[in-house]
Amino acid sequence: MAPASRSVGVYVHVPFCTKRCDYCSFNTAALGGRDVVTRYLRALRREIALLATAAWARRIRVETIFFGGGTPSLLEADEMAAVLDALRGVFAVEDDAEISVECNPESVTRENLAGYRAAGVDRISLGVQSLDDAILPAIGRLHTAAEARAAFEAARAAGFANVSVDLMYGLPGLSAEGWSATVDGVLAWHPEHLSAYGLTLDPGSVWGSSGVAGLPPEETVVAQYWALAERGAARGYEHYEISNYARPGFRSRHNQIYWRRGEYLACGPGAAGFVGNVRYGNVKPVTRYAQILEEHRLPIETFEHLDTRQALAETLMLGLRTLDGVPSTVLHDRATTDPALRRRLAAWRDQGLLIDHHDRTRLSEAGFLVSDALFIDLL
Question: How many CB atoms lie within 10 A of CB 358?
Fold first, then answer.
């Protein structure tokens, strides 16, 4: 497999967590001694070096790098710098590449963040989730509302002019009023970007397998969605993707690679990548990941070649998640041989859920809220 484009993103998975949140289904590993982290970092650099031996490696340019987790902010500044140096040493990383790091409030300091900034990181994504000190421990978070604010201020003091804040709604015990207080509190910080995700009970999470009490009713969750949409718009934030809001000029460049079905390389245990028409994923256990790389092999465990129909469905579903939408002709062509989909699209247009504008079609604000129903038909 080889990239079809000359420009790609790079996703780096840092799996370590001090404590796994009960709602989390991502690939995580308990943070043990630093020897485990050291072995992981050594393997990560080997993976980067192996990827660089591909025949296509010299012709691509890296436009974004995203450290996700887990908790990437558990890495020391010199460790983060070493990974970035490894990437720059073998790939042509754009001078203005967006380099993002996910951080948890309890695991950052101004000094460490300043070290990240000196290493070239220019965007911080802060996992706040809530500003309710009754909600935070109930969902497994290790910070308080005051510590979340302090972490945001530390990012500013360290020189970051692009800070995103992650929030969650639909949480157990979260009222509409409590959510509105969190939204108002975070908007008062003036972050450049907000991500807000409704709670989903994914199978890989503790709550997904065991269940959880106290979930708010659907009408409360809907009210929480609208509270952010309306407050964000009033403060000048563009609701540019179902779960994402940005001040003008501060959309996540890396995430837009995903939504525009661009290509990205995967590094780290459990990381997923997309190259050519192939989606692939690395092995998840940290020890197994490191062992494979110590044998000088890439740790790819799964891959799927997408056929034309799958590629079209992805293009439409990912594009319709965004304010930019999709080319109207592409959606029309998909519906041509599918009477049920044509009827669904016509009904959604009549209800104002789907909007045609010039040569593109997009979901309305209300359409975002119920988009899963349409995405099922697009499959």
Answer: 6
* Angstrom distances, CA of residue 181 to CA of 37, 50, 375: 38, 48, 32
Cβ atoms of 154 and 114 within 8 Å: the answer is no
Spatial separation of the C-alpha atoms in residues 335 and 342, rounded to whole Å: 5
Q: What is the pLDDT of residue 90?
A: 97
The first and second tokens of residue 189, run together, are 């910080």
Q: What does the pLDDT look like over 254-289, one tens digit per residue?
A: 999 999 999 999 999 999 999 999 999 999 999 999
For the chain, helix, strand, coil in percent to 5 are 45, 25, 35
Q: Are the C-beta atoms of 364 and 354 separated by less than 8 Å? A: yes
Q: Which residues pair with 116 in a beta bridge?
A: none
Q: Specify burial of residue 96 (Cβ count, 10 A radius: 0-12, 13-18, 19+).
A: exposed
Helix axes 77-90, 34-51, angle to 10 degrees: 10
Task: Tell how far CA 240 is from the center of its chain.
Answer: 14
Angle between helices 339-350 and 328-336 (to 10 degrees): 140
Q: Which two tokens stand for residue 22?
A: 């009960």
DSSP state of 34: H
What is the total residue count of the chain? 379
- Furthest CA-CA distance within the chain: 60
Q: Answer yes or no: are the C-beta atoms of 345 and 331 closer than 8 Å.
A: yes
Half-sphere exposure of 21 (CA within 13 A, CB side): 26
- pTM for the model stands at 0.96
